[in-house]
Amino acid sequence: MELSRVRNIGIAAHIDAGKTTVTERILFHTGREHRVGRVDEGTAVMDWMAEERERGITITAAATSVSWRDHRLNVIDTPGHVDFTVEVERCMRVLDGAVLVIDAVAGVQAQSETVCRQMARHSVPWIAFVNKCDRPGADFLSAMASLRERLGARPVAIQYPILTNPGIAGVVDLISGQAFTYGGGADGAPGAGVKSGQPQPCKLPAELEDEVGVLRADLWETLADWDETIMGAVLEERPVECGRALLALRRATLAGELVPVLCGTALHDVGTQPLLDAIVDLLPAPTDRPPVSGADPAGGPEKLRPAEPGAPLSLLAFKIQADRHGDLIFARIYSGTLAAGAKVFNTRARKQERIGRIMRMHADSGESLEQAGPGDIVAIRGLKFTGTGDTLCDRQDTLLLESLSFPEPVISMVVEPASAAERDKLRQALERLEHEDPSLRVREDEDTGQWLVEGMGELHLEVVQHRLMSDFNVKPRLGKPRVSYREAVVGAGGGSARVDRTLGGKEIFGAVSLELLPEREAGTPAIVWDDDQAVPREMVPAVEEAITMEVMGGPRFGFPLVQGMVRITGGASGERDDPMGFAQAATQALRDAMAKAEIAVLEPLMSFEIQAPEEFISGIIADLNSRGASLGEVHSEQGMGFARGTVPLSKMFGYSTVVRSLSQGRAGFSMEPAGYGPLAEEELAARGLAWS
What we know:
Radius of gyration: 28 Å
Oligomer: single chain
Distance between the termini: 66 Å
CATH class of the largest domain: Alpha Beta
CATH topology of the largest domain: Rossmann fold
CATH architecture of the largest domain: 3-Layer(aba) Sandwich
Largest sheet: 8 strands, antiparallel
Shape: globular
Helix content: 25-40%
CATH superfamily of the largest domain: P-loop containing nucleotide triphosphate hydrolases
Mean pLDDT: 88
């Protein structure tokens, strides 16, 4: 198939906006599936994991491939829960376009904002689908306004819902001016011989004529900026040609300047086919994207790889799925041709790999391919050294594609084997899960025989626990989840050390002086070198490695040290210079500096968003205040109260149950990480921390 007829798109949304239901309808109408999967019944094809079907949420990104209008659509259904936002991040890294599903009642929600930032970070053009237009309180124009106000987007409506009481009967295509019902009847019920969900032309309801006229005029004025012919038609009050309008809209969408907005309700099968048309007409093909660029591992100039089968091979491994049969590596091919049995080079690992099996995935099943080319998203078996974010390429023409970065975990849990016999089995299972999930961190305490498992939230750790039991047949003992604290440098300290000793019959020497300084930037302390320091150049790697290892445990409670800078101010050199001597000197000097510096404890903060009927919002706010929340915005709209702000994560364990109780089950609640904030010294004892 021509590359211009390929679309690599993701379906993304806040949890419960109906994203997976949209994907299930796409599978049905493209003929990939002959029945419609239901999330609430646990029959959704794309939610293939047992955990997903039990909970009714998407946990892992699932890929499929469908055909529509002689185009191939490679579709990835991404999670909507914040605990699994890393899945969305790595998918957006390799996608060409996306569909953001918005709830017609709630509009843009917290995770919608996160997804929008991810799309912007990876320059992914997108369109919006306002779903659930049949629900009481649904407001298409209000949902559009939230795209503008909360995401800073420039939305432009290309559809408008035809509402009945209750529900939605169809949509108006604002480009053509044609109205459609779904199922043949004016009330949306199927007519004789008409398959449910098929659009049927109908007369535009008289009560919508004025609204539709205004929206069409706005659309033409917006597109006039992108096409001179449309500009002339607007000025001369002539009709605008539909094909011309689609081309202008496509240019603006690919440029990231406009966001076309469609509407419908996936559950009742209204609006799926126009959404598929919009994906084909408005979102980019691989040929519409600039050639991928990568660094030259040899230090040469940046390399470009055009999306051509004959170009040197380049692909990025963006996801690993671990199971009992080995790793399944998901990869996006940017250039060249990948064949089964071929040898490829892993640039990071500096290892040669052999391609075992290439598959085009459909949820948890795969169709074997002999070869794949540019623009393909495939799954590969047989790779031994490849991890998330690795580049695979030709050994004769290597490059290093931009890798992936992931957020730090905010919550941890102690895990230990139920018996000594299970220890090795548990270790292997945790290693496999950590290898698969880059947002999961596992650290072993050899003294206690326990592992500390760190993740992105309570649900994340729950899923890990259940996968240990179901996928790896391990039943460990588990501690209660606890937050992952950090230690930050807030006051400077200096230290120096000199090592001059005999070790293992060898005389070693090293001397280092340094300062530990506060730094606003979050993350592992940077290491800077004064120009006049005397540490020999060849000893620099040993010093930096020692410092990097030492800051993994802060001086107060052993939490990782962040927001600091280590400045090497001096040292000495002699005939017995040795890397081990300088490493020991650097470690001792840093410990001396940390003992003198002022160190604060940081705790993870979460930004929250709560929606509840107005009569419950005051009680919810009072409860949040008791948890130390900092309210940023509280307002009411159409009988619903909205509250946003930040709150310490430690105060929010089990909060979903509390907020349901406070609102009689009628509140919506979501959180996402919002960085770290200082923990008051008087709070340390209450958290089980004591001054050291």
